[in-house]
């Protein structure tokens, strides 16, 4: 983005901030305040419009423009990049006027405010992957659009709300897949399989269903569960034969198992491995006991170590020389 554009945005924001500090005359009538707010909205001076609409509502709460001013306030906050204020104003209007003929507009703007909540100034100009962002606002937007389409299916805003719901549903499903792959990288295979199954069961007809089956297959294979892995793989091959995880009909895991060896073991290709793998039967409790024993042995006073070594030698027998070890005891 050119620097001049950033400077222009900064100047406009500073100008809007300065204009918002202008006092509103106490002598203005309700109609004059509403007209000033409409002029500000036409000129896209949303900060000033918000101030005039708030003044109108506080001074004339039962006037003929009060309800319309509350609706206009939702729109002004939304266009002023204040999603929290827009959602709060929409919730207030819905609570105060549930039977208003334009209440569907409040539901729609509330959903739009949540829809754009994560799309700040940088997100509009930078190629950010929205599927990797926090899905909270997207989930709220989906639920709010769902309320609109359920309560007012014939609303003029329902078609656009349904189109946005499809996008949001795909986004939420893709976010679940990102989380599942994060669990695969961390070798949390049970959590990864649960995420994949959740996508398959709750986000049907989205592009991420195939990814969910692939995650389930990989997680079950890592855990050694052959039957569920084979079932997931069969469903993947049947419904998504062109999935990237399938090559020549064979499943290729996307995530590699992390190499938990030390850097010395990796550098020497395992010839010098300081971390000896524990047996599979070793439990976390036994590992803690061994660790406590090793720590206690290191903390022993030095004057006791010779006595302990001598006792160990008596139990193991006399210590053999290096020549004896080299010739396997033939010349001992």
UniProtKB/TrEMBL annotation:
Signal peptide: 1-19
Record's keyword terms, sorted: Cell outer membrane, Lipoprotein, Membrane, Palmitate, Signal
GO cellular component: Bam protein complex
Coiled coil: none
InterPro entries, alphabetized: BamD, BamD-like, TPR-like_helical_dom_sf
Subcellular location: Cell outer membrane
Membrane topology: Lipid-anchor
Outer membrane lipoprotein BamD-like domain sequence ranges: 29-231
Any single Pfam family the record assigns to this protein: YfiO
Function field: Part of the outer membrane protein assembly complex, which is involved in assembly and insertion of beta-barrel proteins into the outer membrane.
Family in the record: Belongs to the BamD family.
NCBIfam families given in the database record: OM_YfiO
Description of how the protein assembles with itself and partners: Part of the Bam complex.
Protein name as annotated: Outer membrane protein assembly factor BamD
Gene that specifies this protein: bamD
